[in-house]
Design brief:
51% of the residues lie in helices and 6% in strands. It has one domain.
């Protein structure tokens, strides 16, 4: 199962053509999953993502737990 499919199944992310043209986003937001991965790959990392998007802390932790 792909990471995206797993995260959709666990209701962490979803796709909707009406939201961000169907790009996978965190449920209830317009924050793309790719933004999260970009932060993780950068020097700023997870802490900076949570600082910039504090309302996504729970979903971000669930996403990390799902892929590790």
């Amino acid at each position: 199962m792909k990471i995206e499919e797993l995260l959709q199944k666990r209701r962490i992310i979803h796709r909707d053509p009406e939201i961000m043209s169907g790009v996978p986003v965190f449920v209830g937001t317009r924050v793309p999953l790719q933004t999260f991965f970009d932060y993780l790959e950068s020097e700023s990392g997870f802490a900076e993502f949570i600082n910039d998007f504090p309302y996504l802390e729970s979903q971000a932790i669930q996403a990390l737990e799902s892929v590790t």
